[in-house]
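Q: Can I borrow your eye for a moment on a structure tokenisation matter? Would you mind producing a protein record, from residues through to fold? Write it directly below this note and I will take it from there.
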Amino acid sequence: MTDPAIFERNMLAIASNHGAIPGDRIRNALASERLGFEQARNGMLVPFIAQASRKNYLHSRMDPEREAIRLAAEYDRIGFYVFFGMGAGYGLEALLPGRKVSKGIIVEYDARALRAILERIDVTHVLGNRRLTLLVDPDDEELADAVMSRYIPSINGDLVTVPLRSLVDAYPVQYHKAADLVRNLTGGISDDYSVQSFFGKRWFSNIVRNLRSAADPTPPVGPVREAIITAAGPSLETQLDEIAETRKGKFLIATDTSIRALLLGGIQPDAGISIDCQHISYYHFMQGLPSGMPLFVDLASPPTVTRMAAKRYYFSSGHPLDRYVAARFRAFPILDTSGGNVTHAAVSLAEYMGASKIQLYGADFSYPFGKSYARGTYIYPYFDLRQNRLKPFESLFSAFLYRNQSLDREADADGTFRYVTKPLVAYRERLEAFGGRSTSEIIRHRGSGVRTNIQFQGSGKPRIQGRVFASGRPFQRPDEFLAYYLAELEGLPCPQEPAATYLDDLTGRERDVWTTILPSAAAIRREAGENTPSPVDLLAETREWCIKTVKAELEYERS
């Protein structure tokens, strides 16, 4: 028999902890007639789904509580848990004690069945847990957003999926699709976290140290009708003549690695672009830049690089501190750097400035004939200085190639071959995805590189014509912004257990500030190695490191 009082208690827990959407979907649903209940031998209610001539029980009919404890013991990792199905909540109740579940999501794909359960069984002990978020009949976008916006690997730990088998078997299409989506998201999050763990601190310190030069006035560049982009793949060597013949009337953007190869070939780019936050990118510019050539740089680029350009144009990428600076210090143009490589960013720059047609040269996304870069790029003088009798020039190039753990060989019928790595495949796929939604026509001149689908006629979306690359006027001086940001960092509440709910309890303004320093937390956690601090200690250590970094730059600004 249904109990309105139990139902309303459950709904109150949902409204208090999970927002209006899941509650509205449940209230607007009629209780499923397929869902029934039986008492287990220990007296607990067990829901079942009637399927043809059988009953699909969601929990044990002997002792659901004991079964839940046994299943919970199989999960020993601290992490972000995605529960595919809640049922009567017995499994979640067994997993929630302690700190094993740092944060989690419950995914339910039948509002009618869930309503029937909520009318009979009190699950407020689960629904009222502030570490959990309930999703009812979510579409793919809603599920992806829930995972992406809540899961912070450095704080939450591993991502763990927990299927309620009987419910998954009852709704296989929905749950299997959700599992694939989460699996794909996990790969992307893992890659992103890996990058943060190596570069999080560098991004932060570079952005802070670039603020002084980022306040300089810059005349606008553009608009652009057609653009040529040069990457630094070996095919660029054979394409220089074609570029020289066809560049008239086109805006030539050279990626940082390709600039020197073009100059040695007698071609001066109209602009260069760099996004690498590592100091090794300094080698691209050791021979200097043509006088007056604009260099477009990510705000997180090394100051040693940005200071080498007489005409530097900063842009904002996906780093949260980049966005924070753009909102409160100076409005920089935003480019898409999600591809993880500079060629992707260059295509975004050309599109930003209104190019109707973009031609790519040297974008091999592979190592044709085992060769890494076009002749004239930084790696040749770099290895030339490091070669000796024990490590000749050729062995250094070979070691550079075979340092990759995954190396696949791809060959053509004409004898051309190339090596492909996992990162290069990811770069290509992301650029293909960008091309599919771009408003520009994108043409890749393949050369000896990998076969790709990068040849797009434009998505058909309206293209912004006549747009120039220009930053807004600074809202305040660099030292004023740094003083303001330092006060915001120092004003953050001290981290407390549990770390996940600590972040949830922050005001919107405080959460914005924390978001700017979380990539640094990933780097600090990696550096700690086996001595990884607890999430709360990690947050505290990250905050102190960022405060120290900002203080040092502020003192430098004021000196």
Notes: The chain has three domains: 4-170, 198-204+476-558, 222-456. The CA atoms of residues 408 and 420 lie 5 Å apart. The longest helix spans residues 172-214.
